[in-house]
Design a protein that fits this description.
The chain is of the alpha/beta class. The chain contains 11 helices and 14 strands. GO terms for molecular function: DNA-binding transcription factor activity; transcription cis-regulatory region binding.
Length: 344
């Protein structure tokens, strides 16, 4: 789908030089250079002063050769929160497939939902003067967000749409996903609902799905429980979540899982307990992972278009970098569909 493009408005920022850091830390530029290459080779006192100056000034070292300091590398830095989720791999693979044809390399990092790790990855990527940065979600700690706003390259936030993206966004509404899960269960006649989620204290997008699910149920006059497990999705977590949900309300007859891995664990646990699916309990997942069509019963789930997200991101990056242009609308909604199968 072609969209009208406008000339890209470049961000500008005052360039912080190594000499500025040296002056702020009251050391020589060579000491700063040594610290950046081998922190342990400078004195502790100098190291602390240099570190504080870097943080205060927002300095990002440029690791490209001196003569190329104004150039951009052919690197696109990508940050995902988890390598356990196959749909992120699908997105990165699709993105790389398009970008590699134009000579770009994708640099891939995993935060495990840790803000400090995300900040470190963004700093590392910026030091290579990337052609673009791609991050998962719209929520970042303040230091990371400040760096992203100051970056002189396109920034694309993926797998989520909402208010106030840093620059460009490609994804969909997770709140609407949760609402769609609830609507499907309600249409199937389910009146005692629960959203079962793993690690939602870290995974904000899963929590948005849970909140959308509860809101849809509430508007239909149906109570819905949100039940959480602090560990990542697994068969063990699914068993614990189902037990907790049934202890809260033994009449629960419809559940949505925060992802398909958890939903598969719920099917296993229902089989172990002798709970008939979907007759006694209906289950809806999220992700449409490969096994979803082949579980017993097959899994009703939400299919996000991870490959389309990757392709759209690549298109935005190529337009911004090679054509110096961007879509008139900086947010692209890739949508989702519900895939009805045997579990609901």
């Amino acid at each position: 789908m072609d969209e009208p493009v406008t000339r890209r408005s470049r961000r500008t920022r005052q360039t912080i030089k190594m000499s500025d850091v040296a002056a702020a830390a009251n050391v020589s530029p060579s000491t700063v250079s040594l610290y950046l290459r081998r922190p342990g080779a400078v004195s502790k006192r100098a190291g602390v002063a240099i570190h504080d100056a870097i943080e205060r000034l927002g300095y990002v070292p440029n690791l490209m050769a001196g003569g190329l300091a104004a150039a951009r590398s052919r690197v696109v830095g990508v940050v995902v929160p988890s390598m356990r989720n196959a749909f992120f791999a699908q997105t990165v693979s699709a993105m790389q497939g398009v970008l590699s044809d134009d000579g770009f390399q994708v640099m891939f990092g995993n935060t495990d939902y840790d803000d400090d790790t995300e900040l470190a990855l963004v700093r590392a990527y910026l030091s290579w003067s990337p052609s673009a940065l791609v991050l998962t979600g719209l929520h970042h700690a303040r230091p990371t967000r400040d760096l992203l706003h100051a970056a002189d390259c396109p920034v694309v936030e993926m797998w989520e749409l909402g208010a106030d993206p840093v620059d460009l966004a490609v994804g969909f509404s997770h709140t609407e996903v949760g609402r769609a899960q609830a609507r499907h269960l309600i249409r199937k006649g389910r009146r005692h609902l629960a959203f079962l989620g793993a690690r939602m204290q870290d995974d904000r997008r899963a929590m948005q799905r849970a909140e959308g699910f509860a809101a849809e149920a509430r508007e239909a006059g149906i109570a819905a429980e949100i039940v959480q497990h602090i560990k990542p999705a697994s068969t063990e977590a699914a068993a614990a979540l189902l037990a907790k949900a049934l202890s809260i309300n033994a009449r629960i007859d419809g559940v949505a899982a925060s992802n398909d891995t958890l939903a598969l664990g719920l099917l296993f646990e229902c089989m172990r307990r002798g709970i008939a699916v979907p007759e006694r309990l209906s289950v809806v997942g999220f992700g449409d992972l490969e096994f979803s069509a082949f579980s017993n019963p097959s899994l009703t789930t939400i299919r996000p278009f991870g490959d389309v997200i990757g392709e759209e991101i690549a298109r935005l990056v190529l337009a911004a970098v090679e054509e110096d242009a961007r879509p008139a609308r900086p947010a692209i909604n890739t949508g989702f569909v519900i895939v009805e199968r045997g579990s609901a």
